[in-house]
Amino acid sequence: MVRTLTATVALLLVLLLVAIAAALLYRGNALDAQARDARAQQRVTTLQSQLESERNARDTEHTQAREMAQIGDQHEDDREASASIPAAVVADLRAGNLQLRDDLATCHTARLSQAVSGAVERDASAQLRPEVAGTALQIVTEAEDHVRSCQRVIGVLTGQRLPVETNP
């Protein structure tokens, strides 16, 4: 009976040790699973934030592209509109609707002395003044349009909105 009792106690001790080992093994597996879940959740969060950042960057890029296209279209429209300026200015000058200022009417750096010129040259010079004024005005208008477009592009790229000027 002592033997049976000893065997039973030994068996119970072995079963207790096996149960403790199983509990420790299960607990270790559970902790590993929790750690894997935490890492997976962290990766998911990181990927979601990267995806959101990429979407925001793409939206910004698309917005900038649309604004750049609008600036380009406006610039082309301005260039096409400025092509008609010389003819209109020449016609207005010849009709007398516009007059050149005295300093512009007499300013010809290529001709230092108008007194030496012949009558034919003076007539040609008088004809040339309205055309030169029209061309000069077109060049100035195109330059202003170009500068304005460049300023708008810089504003789009830097995120600053520059005040839009209207043509006088």
Automatic annotation (TrEMBL):
One of its GO terms (biological process) is viral release from host cell by cytolysis. Residues 47-83 are annotated as: Disordered. Pfam families: Phage_lysis. Residues 52-65 have a biased composition (Basic and acidic residues). InterPro entries: I-spanin. It comes from the Bacteria. This is Uncharacterized protein.
